Amino acid sequence: MTDPKFSVRCSIPCNLCGARDVEEAATHDRDGAPLRTVICRRCGLLWTDPRPQTGEVHDYYAQKYRLDYKSTYQPKAIHLYRGGRVALQRWEQHKRILKPGSKVVDFGAGAGEFVYVLRALGCDAAGIEPNQGYAGFAAETLGMPVRQGFYQDAQVAPESCDTVTMFHVLEHLEDPFHALSAVCDWLRPRGHLAVEVPNVEAVCQWPGHRFHRAHLYSFNPATLERLFARAGFEVEESLVSSDGGNVTVVGRKYETPGGPVSGEIAGNYDRVVSTLRGHTNPRHLLSGYPLKRPLEKLAQRLDEYRHARGRAASTQILDELIREGRNAT
Asked: Model confidence over 215-253: pLDDT tens digits?
């Protein structure tokens, strides 16, 4: 990181507080490719600067993102099993705001696994997914009401939803504040929004694996909570996963909009910088994560292969997971 006494060039103002007072946090992504990441010294939000034009970003997510990260245009059986299992975990975590009969929009629905689970459990759920291959699979193979496109084009009536969910979506968006403000308009007064993002303060991965070229923004709990407040939400829950890797915030739309909320967060820049600088390769090596995480992932992959082997991606995989989940409770 650069000397904290000096600000550096910034082409994009901070999405949270509007400042251009930044420090360079990294110059490469997790694969070693050039990727410049800056951190706002007023609030501690991080983002990629510079970045591609909007048309390039939209084309990437519509056409190429899943091929890059999954090496497939549409999900295979192993991906569907994995997505279904995660969907059930998310329903269990958020079931207090996902009651039968409630109208839910899953923003960034992927292959439609969460929408499928919610509908099987009694919710009136639909989804929005920018990727053509995955949205097509959700609609055609799973028969789910998942529309292909971006949130700016979504045909969601104002104040028509009880809950909106966004799991590992916000970090990919060019304007997170605008996106949350749009979602606020979709929700009924006192409707809920649940967001999960990677935690930039996580120390469960190697230090060099922190920044991804597909992640335009990086949040910690403080910046995500403040973004909720600025977009019109009262924060009800703010949780960090057991390994520290993810942040989840649940907010309720204010019944009566309040006054403007400042985006600046005193002390958060210092906190994030201290974490980034303190997370070194030697410390990570001694933490136990380099052994623990690969073993956990190996066990998970073996379980996934066992369940998906010789099967086609279909509703049968999700139906069996839902049935197992019901039996377990």
From this structure: 999 999 999 999 999 999 999 999 999 999 999 999 999
What is d(CA 302, CA 119) in angstroms, rounded to the nearest whole number?
29
What is the full DSSP assignment across 190-221?
A: EEEEEEEEEBTT--SS-GGGS--TT--EEB-H
Lookup result for tokens 């951190």: 39
The whole-model pTM stands at 0.94
Q: Rounded distance, CA 130 to CA 150, Å?
A: 5
CATH code of the domain occupying 58-328: 3.40.50.150
Cβ–Cβ < 8 Å for 195, 248:
yes
Name the strands in the sheet holding 124-129, side by side, starting at the edge strand that comes first in the sequence: 146-148, 124-129, 103-107, 161-167, 187-198, 246-253, 233-240
Q: Return the number of other C-beta atoms located less than 10 Å from residue 158's C-beta.
A: 10
119 neighbors 125 (Cβ within 8 angstroms):
yes
